[in-house]
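Hey, I was hoping to borrow your eyes for a little while. A protein chain has come my way and I'm curious about its shape. Take your time with it, there's no hurry, and the full record follows here:
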Amino acid sequence: MATIPSMMQAIAVVNLGKDSKLVIEQRPLPQPGPEQLLIKVAAAGINRADLMQRRGAYPPPEGESDILGLEVAGVVIAAGPQHKSWLGKAVFGLVPGGGYAEYALLHAGHAMVVPAGYSMAEVAATAEVFLTAYQLLSSIGNSQPGQHVLIHAGASGVGTAAVQLAKAIGCKVAVTTSSDDKLELCQKLGADILINYKDVAFEQELSKHWPDGVDIILDPVAGDYIRREIPLLKMDGKIVIYAMMAGRDVPDLDMAPLFKRRGQIICSTLRNRTNSYKTRLTQAFYQAYGQALAQRQIQPVLQQQFHWHQAEQAHQLMASNSTKGKLVLTF
């Protein structure tokens, strides 16, 4: 195996906030702890959380790398003493930070073997969205065959993963997006009801199709959406919020309709979960869907790859809200 360097190049954020910039810096090579793998990064997924972090709104968990990047794919070049069997293997998985660098640390319990036939860019677009979607639908939502699921931002990375998983479970799926070409993508992934929220009020349109209501709503928007979603819920229905793109305030919220339905509003994050939680989540997902992933019965939607020196350009594209699926940096 090649000699491991002592330094690496990484993308750093200068001037956190609305005027932040990305620059390439020299950083010391991270050293794997007993439960960690050192990955020579081949590709790193881009997530909206990266944009939030550089604005100063989503700092890394205490003690973790300040380098952007929450998922990587690459080859294991060093490992803790109990995990030497990973050496030389191509893997992908979640990291709490540090993905935008030539080398990154990956907890051994969060590593998944790259399926045959997948490129590094494809698997770098997989872990964050599918594990998030699996957490929302299964761990939190306890979704069951035949249930009605509404997925906002259906053409986003998490949205495209959630549509596929919900259909694999046997759910009926409705999506909202901002354009007809995004709806076309969702339809190809199996969505049953397609709503362009710029053309119609999603709650009115969905009530026409599902007058009996919705079991689970996956919501990265929050804000006024919550007030509009509550009347859609079936008895014991759940609204699972995993981002706040429309803001943290809910104007004029009347709790009575939520009580009437015994409804639940659940807020979910993944990055700040414990390593043991992420290990259980990763293993549960891979046990349930590893074969489907390997056979491409489910798969990431990869819109575009960027050389990692083009990270700023990639971030601008993501901020435009015009993307479908995932963007990835390649090294």
User: Anything to note?
Assistant: The chain has ten helices and 15 strands. The two ends are 19 Å apart (CA to CA). The CA atoms of residues 218 and 240 lie 5 Å apart. The chain has a mean pLDDT of 97.
